Amino acid sequence: MLVGSGEKPERAFMIIVAEEESLGGQKMFEHEVNPENIKKAEFVVAIPSYNEADSIAFPVQQADKGIQSFFGNRESVIINCDNNSNDGTKEIFLSIRSDTPKIYISTEPGIKGKGNNFRNLFKKIVDLDAKGVVVVDADLKSIMPNWIKHLGEPLFEDFGYVAPLYVRHKYDGTITNSIAYPLIRSLYGRRVRQPIGGDFGFWGKLAQIYLESDTWSDDVANFGIDIWMTTLAMNENVPICQAFMGRPKIHRPKDPGGDLGPMFRQVVGTIFNMMVEFYPFWSKVKWSKPTAIFGFGLGETEMPPPVKVDKEILFQRFHEGFDRYGRIWEKILQKETGNKLQEIREMDRERFDFPTHLWINVLIDFAIAYRDKLWGFDELLDSLIPIYLSKTLSFVIKTDRMSVREAEEFIEEECVQFEATKSLLIQRWNGR
């Protein structure tokens, strides 16, 4: 259907919906809806989604305000890259009034996964010849217009990748705290505190590099996408900075002891897979270096809301792991590491302590088991979850009386231990 130049976008959208619903009550799949026929854009704000009809309006409105306030002199567009949501996400997105044009793109019916949304986005960025791209989550409740500024402005000031720097509760993002941050930092030598933050910016020309990478996998097509993009940017030697967001990231809360399942497998599996792919790069990295922070010193910092942790569930899941995954642990863990796990199994919950050096050894053993395909990937990574939860329990107990700042210093000290034992990782990786 062609809409005449005098047709208002809202009217055009109504016609599209009417045509969809005319086909026997079944909505016709549309890969793209581009009401204003945008062919080129210098700046893009993208919002990946799946069934976010109840939340997408707010980040779209804030993104629009941010674009108009800080990028008004650039040709801009807001893109919703969706998984063909069936809850009306597309209709809500297109109906939101904004001064910035909007484009909706979707994966084919039945194709899910955040990474698949991004693959569509990368292609569209190339088509639009965009110079800078900012991505924000569709369920954000704390986004402000200046988030678009902080994530986008460095892209026009010689930085090619912008990671977020939130003020987070000490128990929010435990996969980042225990695995992603210390591993990425020690492997690739860059202190990027939130490598899987969900909100970030990148050069438009990186989209072509992402599309052409031979490291794409099923994990990356899902929740592995964020850590994959960050890691590729590091290995491409793209100039990286962090954007201080000034307030916490508030979205749908998650209990660290809740069901991790696919997300854990996809994020950690991607980290391990990239270790295999980029060994020539990271094996030469000795120590980490700080990463520039854009927008620091924004005035008073807002403190994050509390995150409740059920310590009993963490404790139980660790003990259940011995019965469920004991045979895997026996096969892949060094004997000394396995014996140490048996020792801490006997500890009381309130005095539970998982030493950092033991956790490092566990991750090394699992990374090598992943590389050598000593077990099926899904079950191997699932078997790491109870150990990870016990490490989380230990962190919660040790930092119970600490402030956010003190807990952050504790995490930094653990990262230093990761870096100090990197030679052990390389020795084990090389079979010594």
Report on the architecture of this protein:
α2 links the parallel β2 and β3. The protein has 16 helices and nine strands. The termini are far apart. The protein is globular. 48% of the residues lie in helices and 9% in strands. The protein has 432 residues and is α/β, with parallel strands linked by helices.
Lay out the secondary structure.
Elements lengths: L8 H13 L10 E2 L9 E7 L7 H14 L5 E7 L6 H7 L6 E5 L7 H15 L3 E4 L9 H8 L8 E5 L8 H15 L11 E4 L2 H7 L12 H11 L4 E5 L16 H17 L1 H4 L10 E2 L16 H22 L2 H11 L10 H16 L5 H22 L5 H17 L1 H8 L3
Helix pairs in contact: 2-5, 4-7, 6-9, 6-15, 8-9, 9-13, 9-14, 11-14, 13-14
Helix and strand element order: HEEHEHEHEHEHEHHEHHEHHHHHH
Q: Cα distance, first to last residue?
A: 65 Å
- CATH level-1 class of the largest domain: Alpha Beta
CATH topology of the largest domain: Spore Coat Polysaccharide Biosynthesis Protein SpsA, Chain A
Instruction: Show unreliable segments.
Output: 1-25
- SS content category: alpha/beta
